[in-house]
């Protein structure tokens, strides 16, 4: 048995902030941001979402969408191990910006979604969080402990943004993405899941304090060049490691964490793969941390660009410095 993705869902705040909007509040401009990062706009949660609800409400919306799709598939007889939401036995939320220290966001979601029979916990691994959550759920399913799981990547890095620091403030956006997973003994599902931490570089990207009601003091600090070099070096390495399990089959898409279009281009070049295989939406969302991979997967799925049986390689990297890759048949 292994975990397969049954359905996906995503949610972002309504409010968009363009590069021109940012240039009104800090010394930056659209051209610099676009050419250095690829970002044109990002979604930032404002007063539309109460502060104690940001991660919870974005995650809940993403989960409702994913569960609704899974339930429709179950009705059509296409969801195998998943018959209905009462079958969810595990909820894992990857977030580094939870609304509260505790309870875990996963427990609040479990309650709101009525998933009575589930174990629920959060994982904190910043931009690599979704890879860690999906890999963990796959391990439980492989071990035969659970059959159906809900995994979420959600972050509101706007919480940790120092709007006076143009070196970081232009990069991030808020959002959530969710996947319903089921146990598969067929062709589709996770083939291999790899997670590493560099064992150095914890000081290259961090938030300065716990941030509750103290956003300014807590704002993130980043050595941009160091993180950039790390991402460009380590991401191809871990992808190659994952591809060893592909047994010569061709990967349709490399779904990378959306941190910077230049990082994605550099990874493609190092892997000697064409950019067409590296879908991206960083233009519209910025870096949504743990949410970027499931938001992109959800878009690809809704646009019909990925279909059952496609070989995908997901890869995340970021604060830690952590990085990982998952090879799966969709
Ligand atoms: N607008 C305009 N100018 C800016 C700016 C902004 N938003 N941010 C920085 N600058 C300036 C710098 O002050 C510097 O000016 P100077 O030459 O007068 O000193 C100049 O632009 C170049 O800065 P530099 O930091 O060398 O730019 P860069 O090409 O390295 O790009 C990042 C900076 C942050 C885009 C890049 O390092 C990066 O993407 N790093 C990885 C960050 C990341 O993805 N983190 C999350 C990982 S999950």
Characterize the structure shown.
35% of the residues lie in helices and 25% in strands. By secondary structure, it is of the alpha/beta class. The chain has 2 domains: 2-184, 3-Layer(aba) Sandwich (Peroxisomal Thiolase, Chain A, domain 1); 189-329, Thiolase/Chalcone synthase (Peroxisomal Thiolase, Chain A, domain 1, 3-Layer(aba) Sandwich), CATH 3.40.47. A 5-stranded mixed β-sheet has the order 1-7-6-4-5, sandwiched between helices. Strands 8-13-12-11 form a 4-stranded mixed β-sheet, with helices on both faces. α3 crosses α4 and α8 (224-243) runs parallel beside α9 (261-271). Coenzyme A binds at residues 28, 32-33, 36-37, 127, 166-167, 170, 222, 224-225, 227-228, 259-260, 287, 318. Coenzyme A (COA) is lined by residues 28, 32-33, 36-37, 127, 166-167, 170, 222, 224-225, 227-228, 259-260, 287, 318.
Topology:
Blueprint: E1 2-11, E2 16-18, H1 19-25, H2 30-37, E3 41-43, H3 54-75, E4 90-94, H4 105-113, E5 119-123, H5 129-142, E6 148-156, H6 166-169, E7 174-184, E8 189-197, E9 205-207, H7 215-218, E10 220-222, H8 224-243, E11 253-256, H9 261-271, H10 282-285, H11 292-302, E12 311-318, E13 322-329
Parallel strand pairs: 4-5, 4-6, 11-12
Antiparallel strand pairs: 1-7, 2-3, 6-7, 8-13, 9-10, 12-13
Helix pairs in contact: 3-4, 8-9
């Amino acid at each position: 048995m292994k975990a397969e993705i049954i359905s996906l869902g995503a949610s972002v705040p309504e409010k968009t902030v363009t590069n021109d909007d940012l240039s009104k509040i800090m010394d930056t401009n659209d051209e610099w941001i676009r050419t250095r990062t690829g970002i044109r706009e990002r979604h930032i949660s404002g007063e539309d979402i109460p502060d104690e609800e940001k991660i919870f409400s974005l995650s809940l919306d993403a989960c409702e969408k994913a569960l609704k799709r899974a339930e429709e598939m179950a009705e059509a007889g296409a969801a195998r191990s998943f018959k209905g939401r009462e079958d969810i036995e595990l909820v894992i939320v990857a977030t580094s910006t939870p609304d509260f220290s505790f309870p875990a966001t996963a427990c609040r979601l479990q309650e709101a979604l009525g998933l009575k029979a589930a174990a629920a916990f959060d994982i904190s691994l910043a931009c690599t969080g979704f890879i860690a959550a999906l890999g963990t759920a796959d391990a439980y399913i492989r071990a035969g402990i659970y059959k159906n799981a809900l995994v979420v990547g959600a972050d509101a890095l706007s919480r940790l943004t120092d709007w006076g620091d143009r070196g970081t403030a232009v990069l991030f956006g808020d959002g959530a993405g969710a996947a319903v997973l089921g146990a598969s003994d067929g062709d589709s599902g996770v083939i291999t899941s790899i997670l590493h931490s560099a064992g150095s570089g914890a000081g290259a990207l961090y938030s300065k304090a716990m941030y509750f009601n103290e956003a300014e003091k807590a704002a993130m600090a980043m050595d941009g060049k160091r993180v950039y070099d790390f991402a460009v070096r380590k991401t191809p390495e871990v992808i190659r490691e994952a591809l060893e399990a592909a047994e010569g089959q061709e990967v349709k898409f490399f779904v990378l964490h959306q941190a910077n279009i230049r990082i994605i281009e550099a990874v493609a070049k190092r892997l000697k793969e064409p950019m067409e295989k590296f879908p991206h939406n960083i233009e519209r969302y910025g870096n949504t941390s743990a949410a970027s991979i499931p938001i992109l997967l959800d878009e690809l799925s809704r646009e019909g660009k990925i279909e059952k049986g496609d070989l995908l390689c997901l890869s995340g990297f970021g604060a830690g410095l952590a990085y990982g890759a998952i090879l799966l048949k969709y």
